[in-house]
Amino acid sequence: MPSVTVKLYSLFFKFLLKHRLHNHIQTPRHETNNSSSFGITSRPEESVAAANPSFSDGVATKDIHIDPLTSLSLRIFLPETCLVSLDSDFKSQLRARVTSDLDVLRRNSYASSGTGNVATTPMENRRRNSYGCNTLDLNYRGYSPAIGNCRRLPVMLQFHGGGFVSGSNDSVANDFFCRRIAKLCDVIVLAVGYRLAPENQYPAAFEDGLKVLHWLAKQVNLSECSKSLVNARGGGGADLRKSDINRNVADAFGASMVEPWLAAHGDPSRCVLLGVSCGANIANYVAQKAVEAGKRLDPVKVVAQVLMYPFLIGSVPTHSEIKLANSYFYDKAMCLLAWKLFLPEEEFNLDHPAANPLIPGRGPPLKLMPPTLTIVAEHDWMRDRGIAYSEELRKVNVDAPVLEYKDAVHEFATLDMLLTTPQAQACAEDIAIWVKKYISLRGHEFSY
């Protein structure tokens, strides 16, 4: 059974959550339905961790907004392993090269050439290529990809929990969890700040998740265009000068749009989706759309997904929904309130596609879904739904194991007060072991 501390905190947690949900329920429908599509991605009561673009604790982070029409945002988690080379000699050479460039820059920062123009330094040339691997911007007080230092890492899209109405991608708890996953899995984590209900109801959050996947594909294309332009500038002669204006226009467009961390270190052909609670519903939807899109998403390829205690429900109650209806932290009554806030009033149905993926005739055939790891907790009323979905995937030969954690509650590995428990650490390690089967460049040498 959960500890006394967990039980007491659960009572306090449910009291606050129930109060907040009822406040949203009492808000007139017309006030939410007529709200701007820009929306919100976090609540005032949410504690937020500031982004840190340096590797002070092994992971660099920064926030970006990727859609001018909505509040959709990303927090990028870049592990320090992107800097690790196969030998220490490369590190020392890189450090010496950077030191040399700094010395050149200092010598020329106030000096002029004989013609009266400021001398062009190697460092200044690198600044111009701010969208590629050859970047070292001293004005940016954080990590900037260095020349010759372009280790490629898989990309993981992470969707936080909160019943579609709370939580955020930059909360203290989510920041801690994503840092842990980035280190253990050795991946670049993109934590998605999707729009929350009831200000933005279904399908806003699902559309935001899919939009991030398409944005990732666009990033790859922009990065490749930028590299082609840089290569073309190197040996064009007269033909290069004739079209130099057009190249400048295209170059400026590409440079302004591409994300340098992803351009230098991201490998979208090894893309993993990870969803927490309601975020698992979003991740599964994105996986379905990736299957339907097929090669249209190339070179982005979803190779696996992790569903952590998925926020599923249905009109016919399961055994766990009956036995554990009043379970810890998120009981069934409060989750029903969350679904009422998330689904439009005319669409409210416990067998809605967003709530129950096992209704026949919805989405692509299950046999086309990517390998799926499902995490469930013993004392979670949603446990049986996650297990049932995994069983249906296995019936059509999809690798879909289930990890059930004893004496665990909903969000046992991602809730703020439970993040430092041995069980939460073990869960993250188990995820890393399984995920590495599908993101390793050397094949499936990891066994589970």
Automatic annotation (TrEMBL):
SUPFAM superfamilies listed in its UniProt record? alpha/beta-Hydrolases
Domain named Alpha/beta hydrolase fold-3: which ranges?
156-413
Molecular-function GO terms, alphabetical? hydrolase activity
Q: Which domain of life is it from?
A: Eukaryota
Signal peptide per UniProt: none
Give the family this protein belongs to, as stated in its UniProt record: Belongs to the 'GDXG' lipolytic enzyme family.
Q: What is this protein called?
A: Alpha/beta hydrolase fold-3 domain-containing protein
